[in-house]
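Late entry, written up from scratch paper. The run itself happened at the end of the previous shift, but nothing got recorded in the book at the time, so transcribing now.
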Amino acid sequence: MRPRPASANERRQLWAGLAFCSPVLVGLVAFTAYPILASLYYSFTRYSVMKPPVWIGTANYAHLAHDELFWKSLANTAYYAVIAVPVGIVVALALALLLNLKVRGQALYRTFFFVPSIVPLVASSVLWIWLFNPQNGAINALLRPLMGSLGLGEPPGWFADPVWSKPAIILWSLWGVGGSMVIFLAALQDVPRELHEAAQVDGARSWHRLRHITLPFISPQILFVAIMGLIGAFQFFTPAYVMTQGTGGPVDSTLFYSLYLFNVAFADFKMGYACALAWILFLLILACTALLFRSSARLVYYAGEGR
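Output as recorded:
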């Protein structure tokens, strides 16, 4: 059956709608689509911003295989993602479970744990630089007498020690789990109370109720937080830049991928090589996100679908 041709009035409505949408469409093309396509082109060129780009084919991508800092930054980022994301989920979920209890001052406690997550990254990074100061920081001031009494020597050097620099940043990341905590807290409100009551009558302990009732019902939210955390870990930049003054030290131990990309683009002015790094980052995030989706298909329970 042939479709009915649009009337003059319908065409006018279509053009009116497009006219109203045009600012967004123009902005999408000018500030999103064009920069993406331009970066893809520049990734195949030698481009220093000051001079016109010169086409060099896949030379930028071939150079990645021999770039030690590329592999170092990738390893640092993978280390952070593998440890910080799961630990952040566990801490956020534990806080959500505690704050879901009916206790006096519940709203105050929820506010107290959420507020750090809305502190600007630069401000919180500067605060934690002071806290992690090996000589005068508050953390080592508390650890020094405790470790001395146990005969463990001096406390960690944190950002002055390449062994402890990444763990220090992972500890800092726990400061901002308030956003994930709120997501889990909202999800806990939808867990059917009658299932908990029935399991309790049958003699199920708290751990079994958590494992077999609570976690399956909030598994979609756990997957969402894991995916967003993974994407954020691959793009981790601001705290590492502020805490190390952009150097990624000591000994490149905090040279994360995005920080290396930034230095290549805006310190070395190798914009073509930086665009190649950006596209590799995009492909890595895409692959890891797809893998996470695929591997979690049987672990996520969607109550609305009756599975």
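The two ends are 39 Å apart (CA to CA).
(Scratch paper discarded after transcription.)
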